[in-house]
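@channel sequence for tomorrow's demo:
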Amino acid sequence: MARTKQTARKSTGGKATRIVTSAGTSQAIRQALCGEQSSGKRNNLGEEIKTSFLNDQNVLFCFGFPRPNIPDVGDSSAYFTKMVDADGQHWLGMQPFSRFDGDGMKALGRPPLDVVIALDISGSMGMGFKSSNIFESKLSVAKTCLLGLLTQLKDGDRVALVPFNHEAKATVELTDYSSAACQAITDRVTALSSHGGTYMSKAVTLGRRMLTAAPAKSGQRIRRIYYLTDLQTGHDEAAVLQALEEDSEQESIFPTVLGIDVDLDVSTVERISAMRGANYISVSKKEEFIEDMMSEFSHDCVPIAFDIQVKLDESWVFAKGYGSPELTNLQVDSTVRMSTDFARLLQPDGSIKGGILMFKLHKVGPGEDLPAVEYSYTDIRGERISQICPVERVDHAATTGLTPGAKAVRKAAALVKFVELQAAYSCDDRLDTPGQEVLHREYGTAFENFRGFFLSELRISEDSSVLNTNQAFLEIIDRIIDLEKSDTKGVHTMPTRSALSRIASAPRRACRAGIFGAPGNNGGLMGAVQGAAAGILKTISKKRAGPLPRIQEVAIPPNSPGPVTRSQAGGPLTRHRRNRLGIKVVLDSL
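structure tokens (generated this afternoon):
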């Protein structure tokens, strides 16, 4: 559960990025999904194993999960829910919680910090952000992040500054926090420019030396080094990771790696997340980082539990885990182990972003249906604590009156299924070879069927974020459906919102041929059908924000010539619209 905040790439307003929405082919969108992050792993042939940036950690962290109402909360505990879905899969949801969650950290107070800020000033930090149309160097963004970090320190803390490139030098030694100390750091940071190579291991060594040599102070203190870097180093990456592991295990010096405009490869993220007390945060937009820093600094920098173990009874084993990089390579066993737990920020509605871990379970014995789970950890004072946690059973057939735990596990299971479906699609190289029309159609149908299930589960879980802050996920699903079904005989894809902006000014004939595709033999009738659909979607687009509904069915009056055109997109709730020609268009209801 070590804290990782990676980038599930979204544009302004929660929309999908332009590179995804503008993808004109199946290959293009799959390349976009797999092009943001490397796996860092190779197969037996030495080939890079593909991975989609929409992994389970990124996706789950984009959604809020309702926090169970637990009256007696200690430093660290968890609420467990078990569900058997319609496919017979056993799911276990684990929602960690602590008395330090939300305002608890402020009320109880965080321990004082000894902080070393290591700032990368190598030449590559002078380059601009990949995803920005307006040039701003990575160093400039890193400086802004650093100054934001300073605002979160308080009396009793100590702070130091270590700029590094091919060398590392302490320009501000570890000193007591004060306005004068912050001003000294600000002045030195402002004067820094990018140059030289990158040897991050020198910053690790110097930071450790400064913290271990600092005069001892009474009381419990947290020692942490913040590394603000684009990690453009091939010289000493292995040495850096080894040194960070040694610092966290042997010296209780915890690392926070702020990746400036970089998503580390999956294997490196997994390794950092397994380090005691470690954080990894991907910074792609400085505004979002500063906002998070202002609200979550204390939650991110203070670990509340170490060496967490979750143990099932002998009749069950963990088969697969989701929600943390530590669970990616989970071994099939009755016990799962995680390095660190941190307190969590509560959203205005009381939910927690990414506030659930999910497990697929396998039954291996004749025991009862998992009545309880053993949860144990070592607290920050070194005391080992164990507790028996009851397991709430969730009826998958129930659609109303759900408890917070039931809503959380249903939504999380649906999101995991989305991750697995799009990962299989994104990494399927068979789609790049000729003669795979059947496979393309199968994926198109799979995403159409999933879309209806996905929206249904989110409605039941009372989550409407796919209409606003998380609409990128629905846009990606819709784009894949459009691309994979566009070549299917008799299926005419409906326009996206961007296409509708062209419909208003384009001639009717151009609309029919350019946006909907050639109408075929029944051009007049199909043109009327397409006009009806376009008119309805156009009206909806003016009245509300968010993604447009998909066409579920188009019904042509009995006395009209030509076939009925259908595009199934699921969803039990529908809205029926009929135009003046009697053509009925059925939309799914979001």
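heads up for whoever presents: The two ends are 33 Å apart (CA to CA).
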